[in-house]
Amino acid sequence: MTPADYEYLRKMLKEKSGLVLSTDKQYLVESRLLPLARKANLPGIGELVAKMKAGSQSITTDVVEAMTTNETFFFRDKVPFDHFKDTILPSLLQARAARKSLRIWCAACSTGQEPYSLAMILKEMGTTVAGWRIEIVATDLSQEVLEKSKAGIFSQFEVQRGLPIQLLVKNFKQVGELWQLNPDIRSMVQFKQLNLLQDFSHLGAFDLIFCRNVLIYFDQDTKVAIFNRLAKLNEADGFLVLGAAETVVGLTDVYKPMPDKRGVYRPNPNRTAAAPPLAPAMGAGAAKAAAR
Fold it and tell me: 108 and 192: one domain?
């Protein structure tokens, strides 16, 4: 791969997915894209880039998907799910008691473990949420991982990462060497392809937004633009949950941290951010981008 090829890929990936690659990540690009070139019967990355420059949308889509990281597991980092169960849900159930409905968005959901973890927590609440209309919308850039998410089929390794054994027994059926989530849990989540770099106002308003471990890979301007647009969809008394390495502090005033609840933010009633310009992007999705 020539320096010119690498620069072309860096620029394209930032425009299409928000991924920012430093100048020393050429090894990462080669490790991800050489298998893709072989699959396309091309001798190397240079030929892959040439196809993209010639206007091949399918190759461009494949390259973006190959360069996004879909690392996730059930109840990842545990603390956000404790906050969901012990703080966020009780507050929202009280605030929404009259209408008995909640909307939750998991952005950059990857293969679905995060929204399915939330669904299992809600199921465990039993009669507390009986009669409520609870909608979980999960989005990602990659169509490939969304198809896996919808199927709800996971390997032994995947169900061993973070998933309590009692929830495995309750909510999964073993299929050969794999495990499939029961239909009642799968039906609680709607999966949609969506790109965080594009307008997502059509999704409507949400009481709770999980947007974890994706913004860390974007540059500061992109983060600010996304935070400002997330705030427009977040109910005034709603919540935003970010990853452990992510924060709004020092970037925008549309959210304020929730005291003593790491990673949890509330919309700022004095939010003043103007609608930011949208970055160019590739089509509908929002995925966790690789930067290592």
Answer: yes
Cβ proximity of 1 and 272 under 8 Å: no
Same domain, 197 and 104: yes
* Amino acid at the residue 47: E
Q: How far apart are CA 288 and CA 18, in angstroms?
A: 10
Q: Which domain holds residue 115?
A: 79-267
User: How large is the average pLDDT for residues 160-187?
Assistant: 96
CATH code: domain of residue 47 = 1.10.155.10
Report d(CA 187, CA 135) in Å as an integer.
Answer: 10
Q: Are residues 146 and 211 in the same domain?
A: yes
The model's pTM is: 0.81
Tell me the pLDDT tens digit for each residue of 204-254. Answer: 999 999 999 999 888 999 999 999 999 999 999 999 999 989 999 999 999
Compute the C-alpha angle 130/73/263, nearest 5°: 75
Rounded alpha-carbon distances, angstroms, from residue 281 to 13, 36, 51: 9, 21, 19
From 4, 106, 92, select the one nearest 45 (Cα to Cα). Answer: 4
Residue with tokens 């090829």: 5
Q: In whole angstroms, give the CA distance from residue 265 to residue 240.
A: 5
CATH number at residue 220: 3.40.50.150
Interacting residues of 118 by C-beta distance below 8 A, sequence separation 6+: 81, 84, 104, 106, 136, 210
More confident residue, 72 or 105: 105
The model's pLDDT over 73-120, given as tens digits with 9 standing for 90+, comes to: 999 999 999 999 999 999 999 999 999 999 999 999 999 999 999 999
Among 35-44, 152-161, 190-199, 279-288, the least confident range: 279-288
**Three-state SS for 281?**
coil
The number of beta carbons lying within 10 Å of the beta carbon of residue 259 is 7
Where does a domain end: 66, 100, 121?
66
C-alpha to C-alpha distance for 78 and 83, rounded to whole angstroms: 9
Residue 240 is assigned to a structural domain of this protein? yes
